[in-house]
Design brief:
Layout lengths: L16 H13 L12 E5 L2 E4 L4 E4 L2 H4 L8 H13 L11 H13 L6 E6 L2 H16 L3 E5 L8 H6 L17 E4 L11 H20 L4 E6 L15 H11 L3 E5 L23 E4 L10 E6 H4 L15 H16 L2 H22 L3 E7 L2 E6 L10 H13 L2 E2 L1 E3 L5 E4 L7 H17 L1
Parallel strand pairs: 3-13, 5-6, 5-7, 7-8, 8-9
Antiparallel strand pairs: 1-2, 2-3, 4-10, 9-10, 11-12, 12-15, 14-15
Helix pairs in contact: 3-10, 4-10, 7-8, 11-13, 12-13
The structure holds pyridoxal-5'-phosphate (PLP).
Pyridoxal-5'-phosphate (PLP) binds next to helix 5.
Length: about 450
């Protein structure tokens, strides 16, 4: 078992000489379009630490973009995946099925919101799950239009690029995009012109007005939204927005899809973020945290909607790979055993208290938001004008990286620093990471 010591250790410059050597090789052979936030090459990782090939140990505030919630080498994930590797690596569920796939679908039926009959289909990536949710909604409703939101992110395939709001780097030069995708306003409280208190109902009214006037509710197959918008800047739609959109969908025969690919599986202190406002989606897409780092994704939803697709209409060679399914069962087992929802809530408590104290000293912190272990700060040049301060986000990230804390940026304006620690991170590491963020502010 790979037990990475749970302590930060910096023994070289970041990146160190061995990482730099590998980076030079990488630049010769890996396509330039594939970026890396921090080119330190990983040797091993687990708990809250990533150890690089030079022996540096970094505090991980990224979890591989919200994936390794149980850590990057969780015992139950490794044990179950290794056992499955010994038995068989692949048959293709569409050729000869296996129990692990069924068990994952049973777990999804149990854990996702709502007590209606549910079914699932498994895929490899988040984008693939979103594409399939749209296919299923279109098949069920016999309608075509798909409604998405400002600041939304849904992936990098053709349809999901079209569903994603931000042009650079995700869409630039990659069009034309799929038709029948329509974007409407989201309740971004911090930047809502009449203030956060009015934002939920006003944004919902605007979105619904746009849908009815510009698309026609009868033409809409699906409304797809992230209950906490991830890449767009960890935007929590203001209270009342999601329930109003769900009601509109229900009243008009539209399939409401919650994209919980980033926010799901204990990340926000609930199994799924939409539970916070009692939202029960018709379909829910999951990936990332579901399988402790192995590629697995799912669409789960009302049995009658899922079963509206003709036999053979859903699938893919690797969808629900047996090793990935075994890893998912290990990941879910770990989440239950360690009560990772409670851990996520505790991370929120620690982080928000520290960040609020920092905000008093550093007015560039315009907003602190997020839930559980999905927390972000939005950086602004001036707290009154709220002009985005992307340079500060980049400089802070760089300063943190140099000190061995891996943080990520996000946001439509590139001015959000986001924190996604593994939920199993010890509180000492969490506080040490926050100390370094605070020092980074003082430095810049
Ligand atoms: C909300 C959301 N949907 C979809 C995706 C796409 O997932 P993948 O990168 O696995 O295709 C992401 C990835 O960041 C995401 O955050």
């Amino acid at each position: 078992m790979n037990a990475v010591p749970q302590e930060r250790r910096i023994v070289t410059a970041i990146p160190g000489p061995k990482s730099q050597e590998l980076q030079a090789r990488r630049l010769d052979t890996v396509a330039g379009g594939v970026g890396s936030t921090l080119p330190v090459f990983t040797k091993r990782a687990g708990g809250g630490i990533i150890e690089d090939v030079d022996g540096n140990r970094l505090i991980d505030f990224g979890s591989g973009i919200a994936v390794t919630s149980v850590g990057a080498s969780a015992e139950a994930v490794v044990r179950r995946a290794a056992a499955q590797l010994q038995d068989f690596t692949h048959t293709c569920f569409m050729v000869t099925p296996y129990e692990g796939y069924v068990e994952v679908c049973e777990a999804l039926a149990e854990l996702t919101p709502g007590d209606h009959a549910k079914k699932s289909a498994l895929f490899n990536s988040g984008a693939e799950a979103v594409e399939n949710a749209v296919k299923i909604a279109r098949s069920y409703t016999k309608r075509q239009a798909v409604v998405v939101f400002d600041h939304g992110y849904h992936g990098r395939t053709n349809l999901t690029m079209g569903m994603t709001a931000k042009n650079m780097p995700y869409k630039q030069g990659f069009g034309p995009f799929a038709p029948e995708v329509y974007r409407v306003p989201v309740a971004y409280g911090y930047r809502w012109p009449t203030g956060a208190e009015n934002c939920g109902p006003e944004a919902a009214a605007q979105a619904i007005d746009n849908i009815t006037k510009q698309i026609g509710a009868d033409n809409v197959a699906a409304i797809v939204i992230e209950p906490v918008l991830g890449e767009g800047g960890f935007i929590e739609p203001a209270k009342g927005f999601l329930p109003a959109i769900v009601k509109f969908a229900n009243d008009n025969g539209i399939v409401f899809v919650a994209d919980e690919i980033q926010s799901g599986f204990c990340r926000t202190g609930q199994w799924f973020a939409c539970e916070d406002e009692g939202v029960v989606p018709d379909l829910i897409t999951t990936a990332k945290g579901i399988a402790g780092g192995l590629p697995l994704a799912a669409v789960t939803g009302r049995a009658e909607i899922m079963d509206s697709v003709h036999g053979g209409g859903l699938g893919g060679t690797y969808g629900g790979n047996p090793v990935a399914c075994a890893a998912a069962l290990g990941s879910i087992e770990t989440m239950k055993e360690l009560d990772l929802n409670a851990k996520a809530k505790r991370i929120e408590e620690v982080m928000k208290a520290r960040l609020t104290a920092m905000q008093e000293k550093f007015p560039a912190i315009g907003d602190i938001r997020g839930r559980g272990a999905m927390i972000a700060i939005e950086l602004v040049k001036d707290p009154v004008t709220k002009e985005p301060y992307a340079e500060a986000a980049a400089a802070l990230a760089k300063a943190c990286h140099a000190e061995g804390v891996l943080v990520l940026t996000c946001g439509t304006y590139g001015n959000v620093l986001r924190f996604l620690p593994p939920l199993v991170m010890g509180e000492d590491l969490l506080n040490e990471g926050l100390d370094i963020i605070e020092n980074a502010f003082a430095q810049i």
